[in-house]
Every structure is written in C-alpha cells, then in structure tokens.
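I am writing to request your help with a piece of structural work I have in hand. Here, with my thanks, is the record as I have it:
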Amino acid sequence: MLLISTPVPELRELADSLGAEWLGFPRMDEATPEALEPIRVATRAEAGFRHVVVALWAEQVEEGPLVELDDEGWSLRAERPLLAWCVGMGIASRCVADGGAIVALVESPAPIDSEGLTPEASVAEGAIVLARSLAQSEGPRGVRVNAVTTCARLGGGALAPPPALADRYPGAVGDEVAGAIRLLLSDDAAGMTAGVTHVDCGRTLR
C-alpha cells in the first residue's frame, strides 16, 4: 500500500495504522508548481501498488471569513491545496496496478460546521470531483477510486442536532477513518467506485 500525503502528524498515524509506504509531499505553504514538479516526474515510472491512498492536508487548520482573505491567504488555503490534489491524484493513477484501488482522504467540514471554512470546503469538493473523474478514466483497467471525507480536525460540533454517534464524533484518523479506508480498499468493496463516504459519525446527515 502507498500513502501519498503531506507531513501532518495525523497522517503519519494513518500510515502506521494502514501499514503503508510513505510518499511525502511538501508542506502546503511550500506546495508550489516548482516544488511539486520533481515529485511528479520522479514517480512517473512507478507502478504496481494494489492500494493507494491520497491525503493532502494543510499542516494547520485556518478559519476566517472569505471576504477577509488576502491573496496569500487564498493561495495557501485554496490554490496550493487544489494544485497538490491534482498532482497527487495524477501520481496515484500512475502508481496503482491494474485491478487496484485508490482512496482520496479528504478533509471536509460538515455543512452545519462550515462557517469560516469556505476555502477548505471548496478544495474538498474539488478533490471529490477529481476522485470521481479518476474512477471513470481508470475504470477500464479495473481500478476503483473512491473518496472518504473526515472532519476530524474540523469538527466544531457547536450547533444542534448532535451527530448520531455523538460519543465517537468526530472520529479518529487512525480508528474510524482508517477502518473506512480498509473497507473501500478491500475486495468486499469490488462494486464500489466513484463514491463518497462521510466518516463523521453522522454529522453530515447524508
């Protein structure tokens, strides 16, 4: 298994939980085209992983009104993450073997908790669309691609109603999230592709 991710502590925990090989991306504040291009080129010839997970998260969660973002803030919270996701999913498509599976692990606030997180919510939707697009392009060679969303670092939970599994909310990356990833990568999920699984203990209500 291959985990393509940024150097975030929770994702290091995920790598350990999944027993995955690590392919590191730069910090999001360093994720420029110049920094990402060598990674893209270096992995061009790599292939053969049956399972690939992509998780490109910022090191810290930022919040604040969209109208107060300056150009650098918008670049850091929206443009660079989306660029990283485009590069990372492209690498995943080259690294996964025929008949394999890819999971995009996306940080996404639940709609009820999304105030102040407009760029993050936008990037999450973009990453989900990338996963669905990859499911279509890689489907002919038997590759399945799904997305898992988590609000483990974004779960404010200040508004009613409480999530259905309130005692487990928002779910730990190394526990609930890792379990959902294993499910989607397993042969038991052979008919599941181009889907989105919200691992937030029922917070999204969808």
Observations:
- The helical segments are 9-18, 33-42, 71-95, 118-138, 173-185.
- The mean pLDDT is 93.
- The beta strands are 2-5, 21-24, 49-55, 96-107, 144-150, 196-198.
